[in-house]
Amino acid sequence: MKLILLPLLSASCFAIGNILQKKGLVTVDTKCRSIKSFIILIIQNIHWWLGILISALAIFLYYYALSFGNLTLIQPLMVFNPILSTILGILFFKENLNIIIFFALLLSMTGIVLVSLQSYEKPGDFYFNKWLFSLICCIIIISIYYIRGIDAEFRFSLIAGIGFGISSIVWKSLMIEAAQEAIGSRQLQIQIIHFLTSPLLWFFCSTYIVGFVASQIALTKGRVIIVVPLSGALGLVIPMIGGIILFQEYVLPIRIAGIILIFIGCFLFVPVFPGNEINR
Fold first, then answer.
1. Rounded mean pLDDT of 163-179?
2. According to DSSP H, which parts of the chain are helical?
């Protein structure tokens, strides 16, 4: 039950944090005339800081759950973030709700229920070359940044989702590595030094920072109903696929069905509206 409640609570905090950050960024963006004034105003904005603090709590809860829970369980439950973010965006920012988003909510909620019905969890391991994986991830992020013809709202949402998704896979791999180190060594100091000097830890920090910065850029002038669902969909789907392929986690047909529904629901959250608000 704890493995179900923790990610749901984390997802709720993420959604509330997103809305507060959006409110702060929108307020600041209407007043600033330069990058310097933007930074000064955002530091002074209480809504942005409150959103950051609530998001920090969400991050702690998420990675705590991910430390001992499978990606194929934790990630599908985290789809409650874009679900709640979409609902709050509609309520507080008067963003549009259409039939597609309604079905996205319905499919995603059904998927969450199906995923949580699998009671047996078997830990996986990372069955892929870590350096090759890191190289591929860097190439993908850089390629998306330099691709022309993509609106900046979508570009930075894509980078944010990919950055967050990769960071989850790297964190899970890091936790497996730390557990193996704990088994092989009884000295706590050696374990801590190995953890802090692990290249995986720094790659995790790098990918998470990329995701965070990209999400803030996208939220500055982008729409919550586009930015959060799109980045959230990728941030959820990438680790789910990674859990099955890279970690070879044990999943029953009922969980696979739930993941498929969530997969469809996540991308239905991303309707293509005319008139993007953010410039290239």
1. 86
2. 2-29, 35-43, 46-68, 71-77, 80-93, 99-116, 130-146, 152-184, 188-196, 199-221, 224-245, 253-268
Q: Say if residues 80 and 11 touch (Cβ distance below 8 Å).
A: yes
Two tokens at 205?
A: 């920090």
Q: pLDDT at residue 207 above 50?
A: yes
SS (H, E, C) 132-166: HHHHHHHHHHHHHHHCCCCCHHHHHHHHHHHHHHH
Cα–Cα distance for residue pair 118/109, rounded to 1 Å? 16
pLDDT average, residue stretch 84-88: 82
Report the chain's terminal Cα–Cα distance, integer Å. 45
Residue burial 49-79, b: 16+ Cβ < 10 Å; e: rest: ebbeebbeebbebbbebbeebbbbbbbbbbb
**For residue 32, what pLDDT is reported?**
64
CA dihedral 222, 223, 224, 227 (to 10 degrees): -50
What confidence score (pLDDT) does residue 58 get?
A: 93
Contact at 8 Å (CB) between 120 and 268?
no
Cβ count within 10 A of residue 164: 24
Q: What is the mean pLDDT of the segment spanning 74-80?
A: 85
Report the C-alpha gap between 133 and 136 in whole angstroms.
5
Give the C-alpha separation, 58 to 65, whole Å.
11
The Cα–Cα gap between 36 and 34 comes to 5
d(CA 96, CA 112) in angstroms, rounded, equals 24
